[in-house]
Amino acid sequence: MRAIPSALQDHLDQNATTLCRCWSLTRRDGVVLGFTDHDLPLTFDGIVFAAATGLEAAETAAELGFAIGGGEVAGAFAATGLNEADLTRCLYDDVRVSVWLVNWAEVSQRLLLETGFVGEIRRGDLGFTAEVRGLAKAFDEERGRLYMRSCSADLGDARCGVGLSAVAGNVAASDGRLGLTAAALAGFADGHFTGGRLVFTGGGNVGFATEVKRHAAAGGAGALQLWQAPPAAIAPGDTFTVSPGCDKSFATCRAKFGNGSNFRGFPHIPGNDFIIGGVRLGDGGLDGGSLFR
Prior knowledge:
It is a single chain. By secondary structure, this protein is mainly beta. It folds into two domains: 6-140, Beta Barrel (Thrombin, subunit H), CATH 2.40.10; 167-242, Elongation Factor Tu (Ef-tu), domain 3. 8% of the residues lie in helices and 33% in strands. The chain has helices at residues 6-12, 84-88, 250-257, 272-275; strands spanning 19-26, 32-36, 42-44, 47-50, 55-61, 70-76, 96-103, 110-123, 127-134, 167-170, 173-174, 179-182, 197-200, 209-218, 221-226, 239-242. It has a nine-stranded mixed β-sheet, with no helix packed on it. The protein has a seven-stranded antiparallel β-sheet with strand order 10-16-13-14-15-12-11, with no helix packed on it.
């Protein structure tokens, strides 16, 4: 059972109360923002909780056991510190959220209702609705290694060991949203950057990063199709860096990156067709030895 501070309990027992909710958001880059549904800003724990234009509770659910509880909050893009561009740049993905019930007349009388993380964010014309997931979501995530044919490492990380060299370029032409061409990509084979990571370093989308959906040669340049549209239109002259992509197969690891000895998957696991295929008369190699000798 949740323990309610005695001073707050005394206030709750009154016929009239002065209660509001406060939310603190801690981003992965260390930025902390505070919001309240009260009509004046409040301050506690060193955080100023902005009023009126911040967040409002939309829906809340609690679950027993390890079921993932949580709720939803709605907000306007006019809120101090919140804007559509930051949401599009994924700065609020997996943000840590603390929700407080506060006596706005005496902020020392407060109760931490829940702590969770921002999940799915749905954007509208004037605002957004964010899903808040409880801490139990950690039990719904895969931990450790999985035995599967594909590689479990990310290209260029410590487990992969490949030294990535990103290519820097300037946008020569673009459809404004998902497609662009650049002369710096000329000379690379089709698909070399498919699955790679593109980061804008200049223009209206500085800092925005997304995965490359498709890469193909285009005359004396290279063409990229992106998975996610940046917040601002892509314009000629915008600068970027892009790294090669990997489909996490053993063949690509060995042929494209020369890293087969460090492959972090299990490419020789028999597939389902072999497992359920049964034994047929005349089949050889059924002595329990390796299938790849």
